[in-house]
Design goal:
- By secondary structure, the chain is α+β, with helices and mostly antiparallel strands.
- The chain has a single domain, classed as Alpha-Beta Plaits (2-Layer Sandwich), CATH 3.30.70.
- Helix content is 25%, strand content 35%.
- A 7-stranded antiparallel beta sheet has the order 2-1-5-6-4-7-3.
């Protein structure tokens, strides 16, 4: 699945990755769990998605897990496969829940720098009081993604721009300054979504999307 991602009618793009635990040690079985897949996909409509989840073996396997369906809102940066998405399709209510997805194609010589600056940010997001779920995933050797559910857009942007309290508040903004100084990635994008519906359970839990 990593080398030959599935195709299906109505499937515009799919990323199949191995789950990682945010903030886990670099040399650890929790850092990349090859038996636990994370999938991010763009579909033409929900009918195409439902057909994939019910008719395809890989889709049925994914349907037995947890997923959230999303409405695209904003894009920063560019990944070639998602460059057709506009920078913005509508204004976000600062108080409404949002889902943030990052996707990067990392420059391999910059990987040690990326890990050094990125792991503190992983812990910052993972431990943030306004995050209900935060995950990471990767596909060897250079594709990395993060996924986080936030109680509000205001809380997410507060973290991004270092407006929170505490010693960890400026980890993300400092890492972005370092990225601007010398980019870690060939391509990088951050996507913001409005969560529409949640399905299944994650490690025995559900209801990650705030009411």
């Amino acid at each position: 699945m990593f080398l030959r991602p599935p195709s299906a009618s109505g499937l515009h793009h799919i990323e199949v990755l191995a789950e990682m635990e945010l903030g886990a040690p670099v040399v650890s079985s929790r850092r990349m769990r090859l038996r636990h897949l994370a999938v991010f996909a763009e579909w033409a409509d929900e009918t195409a998605l439902e057909d994939f989840l019910t008719r395809r073996p890989f889709g049925r396997a994914l349907g037995a897990g947890w997923h959230v369906r999303l409405e695209f809102m904003r894009r920063w940066g560019t990944i070639r496969e998602l460059s057709h998405l506009p920078p913005e399709v509508g204004r976000t209510d600062p108080g409404e829940p949002v889902v943030a997805v990052t996707l990067a194609r990392t420059r391999l010589p910059e990987l040690p720098r990326f890990i050094r600056w990125g792991r503190p940010v992983e812990r910052q997001v993972r431990d943030h009081p306004e995050v209900t779920l935060a995950l990471a995933a990767m596909r060897p050797v250079r594709t990395v993604s993060t996924f986080s559910v936030w109680t509000s857009a205001r809380a997410m942007t507060g973290m991004v721009f270092g407006r929170d309290d505490g010693d960890a508040a400026h980890r993300h903004s400092a890492a972005m300054v370092e990225r601007d100084r010398r980019d870690f990635h060939h391509e990088f994008t951050t996507l913001r979504f409005r969560p529409l519906s949640e399905h299944g359970s994650w490690r025995g839990r559900s209801n990650f999307i705030p009411a």
